[in-house]
# Entry
Amino acid sequence: MLFNSAAFLVFFPIVSIVYLLLPGKLRRIFLLAASYYFYMSWNAKYAVLILFSTVVTWLSGLAIEKVRTETQDSNDKSRKKEKAILAACITVNLAILFVFKYLNFSINTISAIRKILISGADSLGTLNLLLPVGISFYTFQALGYVIDCYRGDFKAEKSFIRYALFVSFYPQLVAGPIERSKNLLAQINTVPDKSRKELFNYDRIRDGLFLMLWGMFLKLVIADRVGILVDYVFDNYYKHGTGALILGAIGFGIQIYCDFGSYSTIAAGAAEVMGFNLMENFVAPYFAQSVTDFWRRWHISLSIWFRDYLYIPLGGNRRGLLIKLRNLMITFAVSGLWHGAAWTYVFWGILHGLYHVVESLIKPLITRIKKDFEIPEGTFGVRFINAVITFAAVDFAWIFFRAPSIKSAFDYIRVMFTTPDFWLLEGEGLYTLGLNAAQFRILSIALLALLFADIVREKTGKRFDRWMAGQWAPFRIICGVTLLVVTVVFGVYGAGFDARQFIYFQF
# Structure
């Protein structure tokens, strides 16, 4: 079920109202059933996978805690058993992820290598497997819980209902944010204790609904509209030149931000209506002052996951510069592979790893230059230049993320740098890229609204809905009604009014 579908417009109010009205003890059971219905509306049989992963990780957490509690005679012996349980749990879950997401990719890669090494070699057969939506997200969330139990950071959850709801909580189930047990599971444990008065909090429900509306605006008005231009340019890049291809690359940077950011925003809003607080997943990422800063602002839940469960266990930055650089490259290569079973994603991840390596190596030089030339930190000019350079680097990498193959990505870049067509920006040329003049005007005004929201986030440190909550009531009403009307009237609903899928559903 998509957030931007008619089915969700029925599902959400019914589930929210029933949840708010139910007695405390029944709320979790109802929300768990609703979450599984939400997931099964996509493909019912794949609910078995999330249930299996839930059972395995829940039992693993309990087993780790049991070993730790019962083994008093030897800490080393206890630790070995705990480590064996953790390893088995990780292996089982990653094996499922590999089969459904990476097996065919591995088979195709082996086939390509065989053809290079053996003339006339036949391609190996692939399996007809459908990628279960959200499998990377709920697998990582469940594994994070088990690792937290192993580290002693969180006590194993004894209730299967509570834990199953943590893994399958419908607002963030299929595209994040990847929640931590300390945040979401801790909130789930307090559900029965909340009175109806606490749940029916007007301010919280109002803010949650506004956040959902803002997310719908980002998706339907900006992401899906600029996506038309992006698809046209990337599908026909060989027909165009510098101006069009730069616009297409910038367009995709905007599209993926608004598309993925909208899902996290709608998820946070839906959760807030029911009294849950999800972590913020995006913090004005295109205002970042470096690529390192970008990853502190972009898909924050995944960045923290890889930091805590891969980068730091590898040694982080504690064992010298070379080991740090190695760990950065490994982490970002794996991050790229997590995003998709294609070499384009791996290359994108490696490219970001190289950005981090370069930034680490030139940091002393940059510091020295700033000191010698007395460049003032924090001024608008410096921050603007840093943001432009960072965006250019990030957006260049997005080309590989969007392109169907590494070869087509390099072809796109080659054409972009060798075929000037800046005449495109004159006259009607701009309106030959999938969007007419009216569509460009709508997009431009919508982007100004996005820019305003990100400036608010950057300057005040407050999420847009929380900033709005502090404004004059008539101003809030005008903004809310305007957002609703603009989203309904100018939203892009796809051919035949079919909901356009969120980009990150494929990951």
